[in-house]
Design a protein that fits this description.
Elements (H helix, E strand, L loop, with lengths): L2 H12 L17 E3 L4 E3 H10 L5 H4 L8 H6 L12 H14 L3 H14 L5 H7 L4 E2 L4 H6 L12 E4 L8 E5 L2 E3 L2 E5 L5 E6 L3 E2 L6 E14 L1 E2 L2 E2 L3 E7 L20 E7 L12 E6 L7 E4 L9 E9 L4 E7 L10 E4 L2 H5 L3 E9 L3 E13 L22 H15 L8
Parallel strand pairs: 1-3
Antiparallel strand pairs: 1-2, 4-21, 5-8, 6-7, 7-21, 8-20, 9-20, 10-17, 10-21, 11-12, 13-14, 13-20, 14-15, 15-16, 17-18, 18-19
Helix pairs in contact: 1-5, 1-6
Length: 418
């Protein structure tokens, strides 16, 4: 087998393990890795993956580890077998080869075992799960042959950012920046801004999650629609491609992002694909036509502070979106829709964050606070659900269906605005 084909096959089969997130609880967990001449503790490798501690370099360099390896060790391993390898993926293959000093025959023998036994781990998780004290090129094949991963629930994460303006852990692109006590996505004409968590979050519990955030759209100006001047709005986005993507104008920063679920808070009537100029929409895979939508009243870019709750129960596959001008969580959702988010994302570890876009209209689009959990547990600061006046003119579920029908009819009649 020549080297290019060997590398391609190694990565495609061994690293196709990112299609579902699985940790393991073997009877014996690997404690060290040997490359034939040197030995490294798995705990040291894990510590480097968490901190990037340069003091570990003398140990790691003999295993092909550089500072760039930190991202590779933490990145969920997943690939579409029908597509060519990216540079990122080839680098990860090289790292895998260096760690275990694999030869051609060991690669060829381990490929089918890796393809059937390894399932949804990062490189560190895979090494930690192998049931041998020392893992090396000599015992890799026999270890894999007896390796039966046992799935367990992922670690639960509850992230609370009441002052998101000084929070770390975001990758900001375009016009996005942190200022004072807020995360500012856009603040002028013809901009795009995205703010995704730098590290992926595991959504292995059937892609379930609960999120609550507050936002403000102020200083609306420029070209507007029938309800006044202003730009296009913002979106809460979950996607698995990158933490630095986005587009301007009516794309609201998420347009064109595949493997994504966006909840848009749309404040401009783009006649070609919008039902109206003030609505919540569910948009999939970067498509600007909302799969479901519901109108909101009053206009969300009126300078006031808004609060939204987005919950997805992966067992029932029900997505619910609530919105209010107060901190009280409404009983009834503005929008509800049944869909399989796990099949849309295609992998269980996703980037979460916010996007915005402006065109010939502008507005200052700010996120003020954010709480998110990677499991279904609706967030209610009052610890109880209570009835409050809701700024929604009609029930969301019905309008979601009507909105989809309306949108299809409008596509042929109207022009697109950028």
């Amino acid at each position: 087998m020549n080297f290019p084909k060997k590398v391609h096959l190694l990565f495609n089969l061994s690293i196709a393990i990112g299609l579902s997130y699985t940790l393991t609880t073997p009877v014996f967990a690997a404690e060290e890795i040997s490359n034939g001449t040197d030995t490294i503790k798995v705990s040291d490798l894990e510590e480097f993956a968490k901190t990037g501690d340069p003091s570990l370099f003398p140990i790691l360099e003999n295993f092909g580890i550089t500072l760039a390896s930190k991202a590779q060790l933490n990145r969920p391993i997943s690939i579409d077998l029908s597509k060519p390898l990216t540079k990122e993926q080839l680098d990860l293959v090289d790292l895998f080869k260096f760690l275990l000093d694999l030869k051609d025959e060991q690669i060829d023998e381990s490929l089918p075992l890796l393809a059937t036994k390894a399932n949804g781990m990062t490189l560190i998780e895979f090494l930690k799960a192998l049931p041998e004290k020392t893992i090396s090129s000599e015992n890799l094949v026999s270890t894999l042959a007896n390796f039966t991963p046992k799935p367990i629930s992922p670690q639960k994460i509850s992230l609370e950012l009441p002052n998101i303006g000084i929070a770390s852990g975001f990758t900001l692109t375009g016009a996005a920046h942190q200022i004072s006590n807020r995360l500012r996505l856009t603040n002028w004409y013809s901009q795009a801004g995205t703010a995704f968590l730098t590290e992926r979050i595991s959504l292995a519990e059937n892609a379930s999650f609960s999120s609550n955030f507050s936002f403000q759209i102020s200083s609306s100006n420029g070209v507007g629609d029938e309800d006044g001047a202003g730009a296009d709005g913002l979106a809460f986005v979950i996607q698995t491609l990158s933490n630095n993507v986005g587009g301007t104008g009516g794309g609201i920063g998420y347009g064109g992002i595949g493997q994504s679920v966006a909840i848009e808070f749309d404040t401009y009537y783009n006649k070609y694909f919008d039902p109206n100029g003030n609505h919540i929409g569910l948009n999939l895979n970067g498509n600007l036509y909302s799969t479901a939508w519901t109108p909101v009243y009053p206009r969300m870019n009126n300078g006031g502070i808004w609060h939204s709750w987005i919950d997805y129960n992966g067992l029932s596959k029900l997505l619910e979106v609530r919105i209010s001008t107060t901190e009280n969580r409404p009983i009834n959702p503005a929008l509800s829709y049944v869909l399989d988010i796990a099949s849309i994302l295609k992998m269980p570890n996703a980037f979460m964050g916010f996007t915005s876009g402006t065109g010939s209209g502008m507005g200052v689009h700010d996120i003020l606070s954010w709480n998110v959990k990677n499991y279904y547990d609706p967030i209610d600061k009052a610890q109880k659900t209570q009835e409050v006046p809701e700024p929604i003119s009609i029930a969301g579920t019905t309008l979601g269906i009507l909105g989809a029908i309306y949108t299809r009819r409008q596509r042929r009649k109207n022009q697109k605005k950028y």
